[in-house]
Amino acid sequence: MEANHSPSDPLRSNPFFQNTLSMLERVGSKVQINPNVLDTLKLPRRIITVSIPVRMDDNSQMIFTGHRVQHNQTLGPFKGGIRFHPQVDVGEVAALASLMTFKNSLLNLPLGGAKGGVSVDPAKLSMSEKERLTRRFTREIGPFIGHDKDIPAPDVGTDSQTMAWMMDTYSLDSGFSQTGVVTGKPIEVGGSKGRDAATGLGVVFTMEKALHVRGISLDKATLAIQGFGKVGMHAAIEADSLGIKVVAVSDVSCGIYNPEGLNVQKVVNYISENRSLKGYPEAAEITNEELLSLKVDVLAPCALESVITSENAADVQANIIVEGANGPLSHEADLILQENNVLVVPDILANGGGVVVSYFEWVQDIVWLFWEEHEVRSKLKQIMTQCFDKVWDFAQKEKSLDLRTAAMSVSLKRLEHAMKLRGQAW
Ligand code: NAD
Q: Is 230 a catalytic residue?
């Protein structure tokens, strides 16, 4: 029987959660997934909401709200990032947690799906305020995480330093060093070589495959990237190194555009000095909205969800969209883009490189044996390209399905099989 939802349901009232739920229902009925499996996957297994009192530098107190949503653990321990952003709410975190379940299943990893978030603007906190917030949040969710239970990682607004504080707090509370409780840590404290760049690299590995099937050679391709954080910046660096011309990038402040191609290393240096792209000299300033409608071969949204909707999808002029961000397209946008023959490489495939190398890091922490960067990179490339081929072949076999439906189908079939074997569905 389907779960009950009231109109004030904090999950269903979030459009991103609603969009993810509709996608699950649509794909599930298209490829005939067992209805009990679908119903189980519609709601998270557990939602933990905590209030986090933090002593600010001026000795005042601020109380933040945080969530850890554990969606599904059929395939292994819960796994997913922690976001610090003012827009965080429980519906957004639940949508992201369910995408982690689908992504980990698609990538054939022995992991379930989870996500966490705190509603806060980290740019407004000092380093010590951020540390106190992170440590207190970790304490509050501490009983529910662990290397064999639930393993957080960085996401928007968090980084390797955040993970080092989480690992330290959890270890102090346990009485011994527990490096495997989080991934995305600095290398000195159990992190993996190649984790920082992994998501961006994975975006480019799948982009190469998409360019190939569209018959566009790398040295002729142009690329615009929205978001120049951990994902967007590393995607730009890797694409540039392959000869793809990066003509535009953006951050929250603005976009920058140079049709002759940006000097990516100069942009990286500029943002590390100025902490924003505003005022970058060798390009024209454009808006984030303008970046999305540039005439380029590839558009890679690598910032936040729901940036391409029915409002602006028809303005997209790119041949290919590679979803570095989670959930950047609404369903209505998907339909318009399919109509316009735009090839969309979906988030659960395109940005899976981060969790693949998080999985490598978790394995290395468990056995205390660490790999060289070239090993991480080649294993990552193998998994990403094989996964693209599997999704592409499924799409062709099923009479030219779009890649999102194909990727979700492959993922749901694995979950269905595992749930039946475990006796969770019948
Ligand atoms: P980040 O915080 O490192 O970078 C986010 C970037 O987006 C920054 O450049 C920021 O200025 C920009 N941005 C923020 N708000 C914006 C707005 N309203 N308009 C335009 N730009 C805006 O975050 P990240 O880790 O790079 O994550 C980006 C996306 O990729 C998210 O959707 C995240 O869930 C997804 N993702 C991240 C990872 C990872 O390993 N970090 C893995 C998989 C998916």
A: no
CATH code for position 296:
3.40.50.720
Residue at which a domain ends, from 149, 179, 209: 179
**Are both 43 and 154 inside the same structural domain?**
yes
Domain carrying residue 130? 15-179
What residue's CA is closest to ligand 1, atom 42? 354
How many structural domains comprise the chain?
Answer: 2
> What does DSSP assign to residue 282?
T
pLDDT tens profile 149-170: 999 999 999 999 999 999 999 9
More confident residue, 400 or 5: 400
The residue whose C-alpha atom lies closest to atom 32 belonging to ligand 1 is 325
Ligand 1 pocket check for 202: Cβ under 6 Å: no
Give the residue, out of 201, 230, 380, 384, with the most ligand 1 atoms within 8 A of its beta carbon, to mutate for a pocket test. 230
pLDDT digits (tens, 9 = 90+) for 264-277: 999 999 999 999 99
Q: Is the CB of 80 under 6 A from ligand 1?
A: no
- Residue at a domain's end among 303, 328, 345: 345
Closest atom of ligand 1 to CA, residue 288: 20
Residue 182 phi/psi, 5-degree rounding, is: -135, 160
pLDDT of residue 425: 87
Whether this prediction's pTM lies above 0.70 is answered by yes
Q: Is the CB of 304 under 6 A from ligand 1?
A: yes
* Catalytic site residue from 79, 115, 230, 245: 115
Quickly list H helices, 142-294: 160-174, 195-213, 230-241, 264-274, 288-292
- Identity at 141, one-letter amino acid code: I
Same domain, residue pair 27 and 172: yes
DSSP one-letter string for 388-404: HHHHHHHHHHTTS--HH
Is 377 touching ligand 1 by the criterion CB < 6 Å? no
Does residue 330 lie in a domain region? yes
CA distance 235 to 202: 8
Does residue 114 share a domain with residue 48? Answer: yes
> Does 4 have pLDDT greater than 60?
no
Strands 78-85, 150-154: pairing is parallel
